[in-house]
Structure formats: C-alpha cells, structure tokens
Amino acid sequence: MSTQKPITISPSEWVSTAEAARIRGVSRQAVAKLVRAGRITTLQIGGKTLLKLADVNGFKASPPGRKKAARS
C-alpha cells in the first residue's frame, strides 16, 4: 500500500509543446530547447510532455549574445 498522496492536476494549467509554441509565437524546437535548459516546468503523462501554462506565459527571454563580464 502506498503512503503517497495523489497529485491533483488541473488540465487548464498545462499545455502541449505545440500549443506553447503557438502561444509564444515561436517554433516547437525553440520551446523544446527551453525545456531542455530547464527554463519551463514540465510534466510527463503517458509519454507526453506537458508544459506549465504559467511558465509559458511568464517566460522572459534573455537578450541575445554573450553576457558582458562584470568590471572591477
């Protein structure tokens, strides 16, 4: 017998990679890159990857290029 509590998941809080790409106006590959980098929370269910909608909507892109080194 398991002592873990069941997790309640609201379907409206999660989207597919394709839906996240549509929301952000980018390619699915761009979203997959963010997932691999750990910048968006994911959930695996039945072999499908779902992304947390709040993370997709609240994602702030970093400016392009290398970060400037701090000067002393």
Describe the structure.
With 72 residues, the protein is an alpha+beta fold. The chain has a domain of 46 residues: Winged helix-like DNA-binding domain superfamily/Winged helix DNA-binding domain (Arc Repressor Mutant, subunit A), CATH 1.10.10. Helix content is 32%, strand content 17%. The chain contains three helices and three strands. It has a three-stranded antiparallel sheet. A hairpin with a 2-residue loop joins β2 and β3. The protein starts with 13 loop residues before the first strand and ends in a 14-residue tail after the last helix. The relative contact order is 0.18. The mean pLDDT is 88.
Order of helices and strands: EHHEEH
Strand fraction band?
Answer: 15-25%
Instruction: Provide a count of the helices.
Output: 3
Helix content: 25-40%
CATH 2nd-level architecture of the domain at 13-58: Orthogonal Bundle
Unreliable spans: none
Shape: extended
CATH topology of the domain at 13-58: Arc Repressor Mutant, subunit A
Number of strands: 3
- The end-to-end distance, rounded to whole angstroms, is 59 Å
> How does the major sheet shape up?
3 strands, antiparallel
The overall pLDDT, averaged over residues, is 88
- The structural class is alpha+beta
Q: For this structure, what is the CATH homologous superfamily of the domain at 13-58?
A: Winged helix-like DNA-binding domain superfamily/Winged helix DNA-binding domain
Strand order of the largest sheet: 1-3-2
> What value does the Rg take, in angstroms?
16 Å
